[in-house]
User: What shape does this take?
Amino acid sequence: MELSNKQITVIFKALCDENRVQIFRILQHGELCACHLLEELHLSQPTLSHHMKVLCDSGLVVGRKEGKWMHYSISPEGAKVAMDCLKEITAVTENDCKCCNNQ
Amino acid sequence: MELSNKQITVIFKALCDENRVQIFRILQHGELCACHLLEELHLSQPTLSHHMKVLCDSGLVVGRKEGKWMHYSISPEGAKVAMDCLKEITAVTENDCKCCNNQ
DNA sequence: CACACACATAGAAAAATGTCAATATGTTTT
DNA sequence: AAAACATATTGACATTTTTCTATGTGTGTG
Assistant: This one.
């Protein structure tokens, strides 16, 4: 995979805002269009649109256009990438301290 | 577990900054004190200290004080919490669209 | 074709975050 | 006890992010 530091930050920015976390909770019940998401959030329409862009950029959410509606859903593929990335970045290859005279 | 939206953002803020991601990469080779981390990063000492606080607050990194040194390491327990959290928040319970006349 | 609707974009203001220099705190050494 | 060292905290500033209003774009409808 070999994601850059920058790419990793883009993925996890999805989960760095309370409103976006709430959007995940709502989308867990299934795909939903922006107008219905908006009903459940105390946000203006442009603000929601901004958050959906951040979420789609992360790959954790995908949008599907259907006429004038945008349907958003959680991406299992994106989730897998994020999981693999998290696992990789928190994996410890060695545990001994080589620092400050090995104290 | 039942983490709040706020708590989730605190966990994943750890991975929302390129320098912090780089710190994970460095800590993967084992526990390290702040002064040695500083050598490998183009940051001032107070800035590093700030990032280490964010990382410790996330639970993904733990600090261990040894005399005047602070030794930091990746926390496998914290990593597990983050993984479980990511898995939970991206889990989809239903996949059908109940939105906009089920289009 | 004009209008209504769903959503995106632009631009500006406010809030949060990242950064550094200066200083404080706590620990070890001389 | 004083000096040196490692790290944390404070305060200021710059950048980024969040948010809104206003407006634009594309789609369907009367």
About this structure: The longest helix of chain B spans residues 45-58.
